[in-house]
Structure formats: C-alpha cells, structure tokens
Amino acid sequence: MEINVNWRDIDTVLLDMDGTLLDLAFDSYFWLTLVPESISQRRGISLEEASQLIMAKYQAVQHTLNWYCLDYWSRELELDIRAMTWEMRSRARLRDDTLPLLQALRASGKRTILLTNAHPWNLEVKLKQTGLGQHLDLLLSTHTFGFPKEDRRLWQAVQQHTGFENLRTLFIDDSEPVLDAAKRWGIAWCLGVSNPDSGLPTKTFARHQSVSDYRTLLGALTL
Fold it and tell me: Per the CB 3.0–4.6 Å rule, which of 50, 109, 188, 192 could disulfide with 39?
C-alpha cells in the first residue's frame, strides 16, 4: 500500500525510539523473558507463575508513566532493573532502515526530534550502545515532562518546549494508542510501524497508515 505523506508540508518529524528507530526485540526479551526468569529464580516460583504475576502488574499501569519507569519496576519487582538493562545493552540495535531514513531527513532539512516514553536511564544506555543520538536534532524523554505520550498534557508541554507546528509535523510510532493521542492533539501526519519487533510477525493498524520499511518513503522525500 502506498503511504500518503506529503513531505513538502512537513518541517518536523517526531520519532519514537523502541520499535520505531530501534528493534523492539530488546524490550520483548527483557520484559517478557529475562524479568520473568529473574522473578522465578528469586522467588522460587515457576516460570509460568512469574509470567502471570508480571503480566498482571504490567496491565495495571499500562499507558501510564509508571509502565515505562525503570525505578518503579525496580521497587515493584525487587530487581535492579537499571543494572539488568546495562548488562543486556549489547542486544540494543538499530532497525536496518533507521539510518537511511534519518540521513535522508537531515539532508532534506527536516528537524528530527526523538520523543520516547523510555526512562532516561534506558535512553542513555541505548544511545551509548547504538550511536543513535548523533543522527537526531533533539532527544526528549517524556519522563522529563511528567506525562507519557498517551496523555494530551505531554503534547502541550512538548509543543511549548520545541515550538513544532501541528499541521507541519509528522509523528512515527509503533503504538496505535499513542498515535491516537497524537492525532487527537492535532498532529497532522501520523504513521505507524507495522514490524517493530524483528522476532514477531507484522501487525496491522486500524486507524493509521503504517510502514514496514522506511526506505520506501525516501524517493518522495528526496524529490
């Protein structure tokens, strides 16, 4: 399916990190495999019991800032999540199509802003591991503002901080609820990522256009 993005009408590109610029496989392994295994060993319960316990805790705070907060999960799970993140840092990697996209955006004069719900420690570790930061104009964690991307107050704060114009901004994210929040705030262009995790099948978006390879967008961008 051809993606409808009119680059001439876009000055600013807001980009999610995990699943959008980085392969979500890191986070899938960390939260769905490593953490349950650690809980199972630490508490002497089965892996299935640990997984069920953790999923219930995840679902209780989904779409809130705590869901993304490493310090919250360290307290809640009694694990050193920061240390575990650092130990697993070698698993963090860029998507294959990330650098071609960011290089083309920079060459065409678009302003690129990373806008992630990731905790600042998580962000720092992944930036050190991947070198992603050098390819972006501005790096923002929503923890700085006190609200996740699912909350309209975040969008107001980020707009005040960066001065982006709603009608001339493209936002790319792998979460449909997050894209919904951006659209409700008034972001004119919203694009989903249908293959955020290299280890999982592609997914479909019900309310937004989606892309599986940014390189398919570059022809129109460089015209």
Answer: 50
